[in-house]
Specification:
By secondary structure, the protein is mainly β. It has a domain at 9-73: SH3 type barrels (Roll). It has strands at 9-12, 21-27, 32-35, 40-45, 56-61, 64-65, 69-73, 78-80, 82-86, 92-96. The two termini are 17 Å apart.
Length: 104
């Protein structure tokens, strides 16, 4: 069970986009995450007439390491670490370190 999942709102805690928030678009198996509007780079693209793609310089979202992200807590209005808790019925849920549940 991953601590960061697709659709989570996250805060970047280090790097060039430090302090910015975004929504997780994709999570890879090796621990990298693509976040909407975070870690955008310029990509030089050749034109491809078979697909109808024009050439030029395009913006592309690149993956960021999951250890550089914190899940955003709407109650405290800041990014917090996430842990796991097993409920009485045996289901496992994600919780913030202060005890609040992540998934509502």
């Amino acid at each position: 069970m991953n601590k960061i999942r697709k659709g989570d709102e996250v805060v970047v805690k280090t790097g060039k986009d430090k302090g910015r928030r975004g929504t997780v678009i994709e999570v890879f198996d090796d621990g990298r995450v693509i976040v909407e509007g975070i870690n955008i780079v310029k990509k030089h693209v050749k034109p491809n007439p078979n697909v109808g793609e024009a050439g030029g310089i395009k913006d592309k979202a690149m993956p960021i390491e999951h250890s550089n992200l914190l899940v955003f807590n709407h109650k405290s209005k800041k990014g917090e670490r996430v842990g796991f808790k097993v409920k009485e019925d045996g289901t496992k849920i994600r919780v913030f370190r202060n005890g609040d549940a992540v998934d509502i």
